[in-house]
User: Fold these one by one.
Assistant:
Number 1:
Amino acid sequence: MAAPEPPSESLITLRTEPRSGAALGDRVVRMEAATVRRGPVTLLDGVDWTVEPDDRWVVLGPNGAGKTTLLRLAAAELHPTRGTVDVLGERLGRVNLVELRTRIGLSSASLGLRVPTDEIVRDVVVSAGYGVLGRWRERYDAADTDRAEELLAALGLRGFATRAYGTLSEGERKRALIARALMTDPELLLLDEPAAGLDLGGREDLVSRLAALSTDPAAPTSVLVTHHVEEIPRGYTHGLLLRGGRVVEAGPLDDVLTDDNLSATFGLPLAVQRRRGRYLAWLR
């Protein structure tokens, strides 16, 4: 199989004009004392978090830290048990969630598991316009299918449009889901562990494409969840560290990713270093 095409300096033109804070409002995401409980278990505990227009956030933490729960709040997939969550200027609990979700692009492993294996890759992408997984009787015009194929090509999947989703490798599936997340030209892009399960080559290819996307002035505000600092693309600006459902630290990435903060987050004596715009971490 041929290697995927390398990403261009600008991954893809998503809009004819760059996004602006005025267009999106003052805040993209704002959480105040956001708490999520399920029975006796507290998944998130009093989280305060603000995402500004054009931010590129990475959310880090161990298994069970609450990262996916945080992302689901930002994706308007669940409501907080206590506290408030505003997404794209709308307060959860006071807004039509179906309409709000059309403004958010989401890529996650759980979403990938719901895609029918026999679905054509182009249809996986284009069906995001109707918020469905699997094309049925919806109608799409040539502009829709052209955009889907353009996004696939930008993510290294040129020529894959008519392949069955189930025939793709893990890395190819991840890139197809990111293309789907970008299909509706979202104002907020949420990526839940996009590099999980990839080999070294697949991870580096994906991270380089996300770095290209992060520098595109037309790209949406982004939040990426990961377990590993090595998966943080160049161009990401802010970091949020979670442990046990609580915020350890949040702010500009270089201020957040310190030895002490990372050690407190993962419960081990860790060292972290930035090299050529990327991060490395190891046990001291």
Note: The longest strand covers residues 41-51.
Number 2:
Amino acid sequence: MHPRFQGKVAIVTGAGRGIGAGIATLLGLEGATVCVNYAHSAEGAQAVVRAIEASGGRAFPHQADVRNASDVQAMTDETVRRYGRVDIVVANAAIDPRIPFLEMTEEQWDAIIDTNLKGTFLTCQAGSREMLKVGGGKIVIISSVHHVVTFPQMSAYAATKGGLVSMTRGLALELAPYHIRVNCVSPGPIHVEKRYTMTPGYDPHMYDEVIPVGRIGQPDDIAAAVAFLCSDEASFITGSTLIVDGGTSSYSYFHSGTKKVATR
């Protein structure tokens, strides 16, 4: 099969681990040259680069804080300096601390908003300006099922993820005349590294009975959805949000007795 993204250049934020790493790896395996962005996970980003290069692809790691406009611009400029263009942007970088609303400080609120909303804005803006120069491109924003149903202590996170869905629709309208498609993927419960420390007694099978498809999701599940939306097969799709959650958001509340499902 001919790689779908041969000759394309992609930037994936928050790609040092978890969902971002899965997305960057699949795009690289499918032929894209990938800027593997990370904030702190340098070893993870290097591992993603090695996996892409082992398949015959091209990738490079780049540390940048997506909250900082100069960092984001430097990342975009470095991608263009190396490879001449930007065709795909996946805005994945996010934080999701659990903080009781009545205890949340202004600084904590700002950190979540700045990373998840402002960081996505800066990443998409810098990338789309480069896409204009090559006649178009694709942007995928990673939201969460928290924009549909959420849990206590996640109010700020849920607010940002709802905002990203709205941002997707707005950008899709503004950028369509420039042949830039903008879509959103909302993951549900995904088996990623942070669960090992966030969930006491974590077992990837602990949610099998409460997820309709019978298993927790994997980063590859989200990566496949992103790759589809970036592909020519999705050429008539823009402004859409694809929920990839094994059916969990179909519940009014995720539960099985006293067991709760922790989503992305």
Note: The chain is about 40% helix and 15% strand.
Number 3:
Amino acid sequence: MSAAVRQPSAWWRLVTEPRSALGLLLVAGLLAMALAGPMLGSYTADAPDFLATLAPPSAAHLLGTDDLGRDVLARIVFGARVSLLVGLASVGGALLVGLPLGLVAGFVGGWTDSVLMRCMDVLLAFPGILLALAITAALGSSLPNTVLAIAVVNLPVLARVARGQALALRRLDYVSAERALGFGEWTILWRCILPNALSPLLVQASVLLASSIITEAYLSFLGLGVQPPTPSWGNMLHDAVGFLDQAPWLAWFPGVAIFGAVLGFNLLGDALRDRLDPRD
């Protein structure tokens, strides 16, 4: 009898499958750029050089300079920090609030579910970008307010995913068995519902990271997000608008950075969804 062929594990496929490998590579590159990039460059993000304004890419400035002579590569590297900070903080904050709200709404049901979900429906009634614009316009343009606005946009999405998981899990046999053994409802919610609801929430969070980076760039482009002189990819695009004929690279490189970051997190989210699928 021939030996059975051993199938590669799902985690191994996560690393070796081309789509997921590309996502991991892009995300790892973004993390490396944000964490180690500022220590490796020879220029700072906010140091002007009026003798080298609008210089094209060269050996001295690999990605050229902007209208104030600031190194574009240094600003993109610092902008990666801003994008990651906004993405992680906004998704983390939304998860911190939306996870317990959704689990309690789905597990308890009744009027609790109705009240909590109607509040989430109010937030979902607004297009996400318009809601973020309204919040930042009301509170003022700053990095903390940008994080808060994007977290509010992400909140109802994560809350409804958590609620859906709680609704599905509370009817399963092992939950009934826990009740039969005398465990309280809150203990069951903590021990049984929460651990099994984390996988789809992790996938959704990775996708929201990508959309949060786009939203931050959009707000900064409109002047309602991260404010100069702090560089972000969005306000770099805003500054590039007036120089598209003279120095198109000012728009190319931050645009490519946004594209790469969003593509990486989306591919990673798809790969995690396949890996965490219980049918795999």
Note: The CA atoms of residues 109 and 170 lie 10 Å apart.
Number 4:
Amino acid sequence: MTRRIRSVPSRRRERGQALLETAIGTTLFVTIIALGIHFAEVGFLSLKVQEAAVSALWDGTHGRMHHIPVTYGEAGDSMRDAAASAQGRYADFNGLSAVAGGGITQAFTRGADMRVSCDMDVGVGWSGALLTRLVYRDNGGTACGAQATLSTWRIPTAFLEGEAQSALYKERNVDPGLANLQVCAVGRPMGTTCPGRFCMLVDDWGLAGELESATCNILMQDQLIPCTNAPLHAAVWSTYAPTALPIPTAASNLAQAALFWNPLPPTALAMVGLGMKEKTFWMSAAGEEALDFVQTPVPMDPISRFWPTTPGSAIGVTTFPYFMAHGRRLAKGGCFLGKDCD
């Protein structure tokens, strides 16, 4: 009987000690879980900062890059506009919707102060061939970067609030230096700035916009303004002239050897008005607005004949298949880019 009376308090002490250890361990476990969620949110929001920079980089490529052959400074405006757009869309770290005031609040993390920037002439360039540099100019490429501030939220500095010295645990949950993180799209911050950026070449020197895609009518080749598509004509002429004009008789020699006659008589004026067949320059660019992709010069023209143009017309063996395919497409409502023609 005496043994039973002594054993009961012992078991109670054991149960009380286990309960106390569980309570203390739970506080540590909850802190670990909270910090784990916080670090997961930091990783997720950091990817959104990177996404904002990449979004600006690619979105800027759809803007105007040049006015051939006059200016190539429009690329900078297009990239800066893309950066401003990305900053607005990613102010709430979403990208699909922007919330007034910006920022985002998650379980234990707050994101704010999203900044996106793009610059030109960053040393990522390609100057092209020597004889094309009068028309096609190197803009040095573009670079886009982004940064934001991520801070802890609802995570006490020390357990049960208060200063660490008076709290249950002496060590702080979060170091003050890590409570507000400067996050970069690329690399680590240097002070309050992020030097790392994504770089890319922009502007493929292709034709863009209505002005640079109009028809170049061969009927106007002898006029002061030889083509309604002045940028295209100027670009082609400026790259043709440095290579063709210095060569005295190569063009007529090639024609004489291949055709046994010279199709360009000495009296052809062309656009330069010099009356030299080696300097004669004819160019035609026609789209769907030209009937059957064919332009017909006037009878007094030195090359008076039908002029089938790229990509093709009913005239010619190699161009006829395109002519048929184009006709089928128009008959089916102009099917294009995935629209079924059948």
Note: The longest helix spans residues 2-59.
